[in-house]
Amino acid sequence: MSTETVETTHQKEHGMSDAGYIRIALILAAITALEVATYYVDFGPLFLPALLIMMAIKFVMVVSYFMHLKFDNKVFSFLFYAGLVLAVGVYAAFLATFHFFIR
Amino acid sequence: MAETAHGHVGSTGISNVKLGMWAFLGSECLLFGGLISTYMLYRGRVTGGPRPSQIFDIPFTSVSSFVLLMSSLTMVLAVSAAHKDDDRKTNLWLTVTALLGATFVGGQVYEFTAFYKEGLGFSTSLFGSSFYTLTGFHGVHVTVGIIMLMSLVGILKRSSVPGKKAEVVEMVGLYWHFVDIVWIIIFTLVYLIPV
User: Fold this and answer.
1) Beta bridge partners of B2
2) C-alpha distances in Å from residue A23, one per residue of A16, A26, B26, B70, B80
3) Does B34 touch chain A (CB under 8 A)?
4) Does A34 contact chain B (CB < 8 Å)?
5) Which residue from A minimizes the CA distance to B5?
6) Angle between helical axes of A74-97 and B16-42 (0-180°, round to 10)
7) Residue-wise pLDDT tens digits, A60-88
8) How many other C-beta atoms lie within 10 A of the C-beta of residue B106?
9) Which of A18, A25, A16 is nearest to A61 (CA)?
10) Domains defined for chain B, CATH in brackets
C-alpha cells in the first residue's frame, strides 16, 4: 500500500491527516499566546469571560481532534462528558455552599 | 468475543479497551475536579506566606504549557504513524513526546524548588497545600505518562505488544492528551486568573 493510500485510509478512520493535526496545534499555540497576553494587556471586564472561553475552546479542540472524540463512537463521548458534567455540577455545588461565586 | 483492527470488541461492536479507557478518563475528571475546586476555594488563604502573584513566573509557566501542548501534537503523530504501521516514526514520535513531557516535569521541579526558596512550603498556608497537591498530582500523572511512553517504545522495539499495536499506542495517547487538557484548565484557573 502506498503512503498516500495509507494516509487516506487513516483519514477515513480518524478524520484527520498529519497536516490537519499540525494546523490544530498551531491554532492551539496561537490561543495560548492570546491567553498569556491577557495577563499583560488590560482587557477590562472582558478579561475573565475571554480567558474562560479560550480555555474551553482549547479543551474541546484537544478532546475532539487529538483524542478523536469527534470522529469516534458516541458512547465514548457520553462516557467522558458524563464524567465531566458530573464533576462540574458536583464541584460547582460544592463551591456554592462556600459562597465562592458571590464573594 | 470478536477481534477487529481495533482489538477485542464486545456485543456493542465497541473496543472494550477503549471503552474502559474513556470510563477511566471520565472518572479522572472527578478526581481533578475535586483538586481544582479545593484550590479555587483556598487560593486566597495565604496566612503570612507569599501570595500567588508574588511567586508565579508567568513567562516560565507559559513556556512549560507550550511544551506540554506540543507534546500532544507529537503524541497524535505517533498514533497516526502506528495506524499506518510505520514503526520507525511511531518510536520517534513517542520518544519526542516523552522528552517534551520530561522537560515539562523538569520545569515543574524547578518551579517547586523556586517557590520553596521563596517561602512557600506545603504547610505554609492553605494556598500552598492546595497548590502543591493539585499541580503535584498533575505532575505525577505526567510522570506516569512518560513511564508508559518509554515502556511502549521498549516493547515496540521488541515487537511484543499485547493485542493490536495501534490500539495500544492510541490508549497511551488518550491518557497523554487527558493530562494535557487538565493542564489547559490548571494553567488558566491557577496561573492566569489573579486572586
Assistant:
1) B9
2) 10, 5, 27, 12, 15
3) yes
4) no
5) A13
6) 20
7) 999 999 999 999 989 999 999 999 999 99
8) 12
9) A25
10) 2-192 (1.20.120.80)
